[in-house]
Amino acid sequence: MDILLKSILIGVIPDVIFLSLFIIYSKKIQTRRVIFFILLLIDYIVTLIIFKYQTLFYILFIVIEYIILKLLYKKEIQLIDSFVITIPFLILFLMSCIYYFLIPNYMLACILEKITILIMIFLIKNKINIAYKTYRHLWNRTKEEARKIRSITLRNISLILMYIFIFLSDLVCIYIMNVR
Amino acid sequence: MKNIKSRLFNIFELIVIILIGLSMKIPVQQIICLLIVFMVVRQNLNNPMHYKSPYLCLFWSTTVFISFYILTYVNPIVAMLGAGFGALVITGNADVKDVFMFNNDDESKYREMKKFIENNQNTDTVKEYEKIVKNLNERYKNRYKIDFYKVFVLKFYEKKTFKQIIEETNLNDNKEVTKALDIISMSFNTFMQVKNKLEEIDNDEKTG
After folding, report:
1. Alpha-carbon distances of B71 from A61, A92, B48, B98, B127, rounded to whole Å
2. 0.80 exceeded by the pTM?
């Protein structure tokens, strides 16, 4: 019970705060924020219990998060947002790896990681929406203006990064499971 | 001749993709399944995107397929789903539709008109224009299948969003709302020009 409580307080809740805030700030969501946060929390806990940080946990969590957003905000959520959802996961994943390999004490590494991501999200909160708008602007094809990156190239890069993230998370999950 | 060249290039591209898969020790059945999933999904969706340059096409096709092959190391079923999703992303079906969650008034085409009506709602000019919209509506409602007056009231008096306008009128999507608002906006600008008051709209926008 003690471990479960610690895991929820130190692990799950900061992660969900970070993930939900990233989406809220990027899309400037004004309504149903609390419901979104609660549903995300339930999604995180349920998928975590079923898959325990395996690769399928990440995939299923992203899929369910997309469905939650689609149910709550309907037309405003589009396919591009599946990539936006993956970005905070990528940040979380990289941060966990860095702290896990740098600090031998697991608990200390975990606390420091969560503090870092929460400070980071508040520091970059205004820039997320600007980046999102730019990403969204470049996503569709246009003949009206010359761009540094083509729409199809941007989509290909997003897709490849997403799949590399899934593959890397699988490698790290296997490594951590073996080490423990 | 051009068609034959393009077909030959596609076959060459396919062979390269299969050879890369084999060199990554992916079973032939899985390579074929990935190719089939990708092609079937892509051909059944609208507006597939292409590169004009064959070299770019070859480079990105192989890179995207390498990412599918990498996914097969995780799980072959996930790789299949990934190939289907990948095919969907590089078509027009994945385009962002013109729907914003945040306030996008700064970029709105009707911002000057909106601001002017907001600041001059009960003036004679706006009332006179309202009559014109009513007349236009009676005349062209059936031809355009749009209730111009209702759209005008909903957008400029009640400040409803596109989504709310669709719900409250017989319009089906954002394109139809845009079409209605474009006509209203142009008629308003013409009216203001006839009245020699076109500059007032710009002044209102600057001070607003």
Report:
1. 17, 21, 23, 33, 63
2. no
Tell me how close the Cα of B172 comes to any Cα of chain A, in angstroms. 13
Confirm if B20 and B62 have CB atoms less than 8 A apart. yes
pLDDT tens string, chain B, 208 residues long: the values are 667 888 888 899 999 999 999 999 999 999 999 999 999 998 888 778 888 888 899 999 999 999 999 999 988 999 999 999 999 999 888 888 755 555 455 556 788 888 888 888 788 888 888 899 898 888 888 888 888 899 998 988 888 888 788 878 878 777 788 888 888 989 888 888 888 777 776 665 444 3
Nearest Cα residue in chain B from A141: B95
- What are the boundaries of each domain within chain B? 2-94, 105-207
Q: Does B68 sit within 8 Å of A56, measured CB to CB?
A: no
Amino acid at B130: E
For chain A, which residues make up each domain, given as ranges? Answer: 2-179
Amino acid making up residue A47:
T
CA distance A89 to chain B (A): 18
